[in-house]
Amino acid sequence: MEAETTDKTKNKNSLNDQEQEKEVKVDNMSDQDKNKIETKNTNGLGYKWPEPIVRVQSLAESKLTTFPYRYIKPPSQRPQITTINHKPEAAAINIPIIDLVSLFSGNEYEKKRLSEACCEWGFFQVINHGVRPELMDAAKEGWKNFFNLPIEAKEAYSNSPKTYEGYGSRLGVEKGAILDWSDYYFLHFLPLLLKDFNKWPSLPSNIREVMDEYGKELVKLGGRLMRVLSSNLGLKEEQLQESFGGEDVGACLRVNYYPKCPRPELALGLSSHSDPGGITILFPDDQVVGLQVRHGDTWITVNPLRHAFIVNIGDQVQILSNSGYKSVEHRVIVNSEKERVSLAFFYNPKSDIPIQPLQQLVTSTNPPLYPPMTFDQYRLFIRTQGPRGKSHVDSHISSR
Ligand code: OGA
Ligand code: NI
């Protein structure tokens, strides 16, 4: 036991030394070389989490006598206080529902509703999206089975803050941070260079095959959504996709697992955040609600339609649209009755090209609100700090 602890400390120190060494060397380099080193080698994040990882699932399955303080949110962030959806009139409010077939057939009313959805809500549910319901069910079932495997089977895929790929239980590396009541699995579809089946689970036995197809279908859906969003912004259909790097977009998936929580009024499944990437296509649990979207000063609980996807605008599209489209804060509440599984697919710009407000959407009276920044640089903030409302995109607003 003792020896193991010492070894771990040694290991940690030697990694720290390596990092420090790199920093020293970086000081003597040109800016261009620094960038290369930072994105290729260190990414600014270490190989280890700052504290031992506790699986939320194992906490939920243990007989807790007290609720662990690390999951107790400060009173201002707790769900009950800010949730106003218990008012009968608010309960009827839901995010807009958009029919993709109707949109593609050029229905003007549907186009107007899409604009409203993107400018006012930042969120909509999409129906007639073309992804087979059987495939969606197989994907959901596969991940439920994965999370139901014994903890040891999942630990083989344990992730690190360096790439986040694999089985994880925290976002952000800040020591002592208040944590979210969820575990997750993170994997890449695109670029193909990052797609690595060995980093995907091998069980249940068909999960790789199912998720491979799911990934391909969602990349296609992402591309179609990019075209409708682009023309809805008054741009040519291909513009948004071109600004994302054309064929070289990024696509990845975070499967969220929210175990039952004995004190749902004190915790959050996922803290308030906006998605850093381009667009998010969420397959929520249609049996268990949990996602809440900020609308003005109200949190709206989304009532998911069966086999619909929930689409939301990410920070990169807010930036490209010069804040015409909104990347809206959202969070996930938990409950004591049912566990919940959701599949969040992120369609992102190529990670090393600068993203900035599109020239066509900028005028002298509507100057660019954001300086150019690559998605790699941008994502680093989130990966270091964890979910934090909209402070990321807002902190990048140019000071003019
Ligand atoms: C996310 C997210 C919502 C959900 O993964 O970024 O917002 O319902 N998920 O799990
Ligand atoms: Ni999100």
From TrEMBL:
Sorted alphabetically, which Pfam families does this protein's record hold? Answer: 2OG-FeII_Oxy, DIOX_N
Recall the GO molecular function terms of this protein's record: dioxygenase activity; jasmonic acid hydrolase; metal ion binding
Answer whether the UniProt record assigns the keyword Metal-binding to this protein. Answer: yes
For this chain's UniProt record, which GO biological process terms are given? defense response; negative regulation of defense response to insect; regulation of defense response to fungus; regulation of jasmonic acid mediated signaling pathway
Keyword Glycoprotein included in the entry's annotation: no
**Reaction it catalyzes:** jasmonate + 2-oxoglutarate + O2 = (1R,2R)-12-hydroxyjasmonate + succinate + CO2
Region feature Disordered, mapped onto this chain = 1-39
Per UniProt, the keywords (alphabetical) are: Dioxygenase, Iron, Jasmonic acid signaling pathway, Metal-binding, Oxidoreductase, Plant defense
Q: Which PANTHER family match?
A: OXOGLUTARATE/IRON-DEPENDENT DIOXYGENASE
- Please state what the protein is called: Jasmonate-induced oxygenase 1
Q: Which organism is it from?
A: Cardamine amara subsp. amara
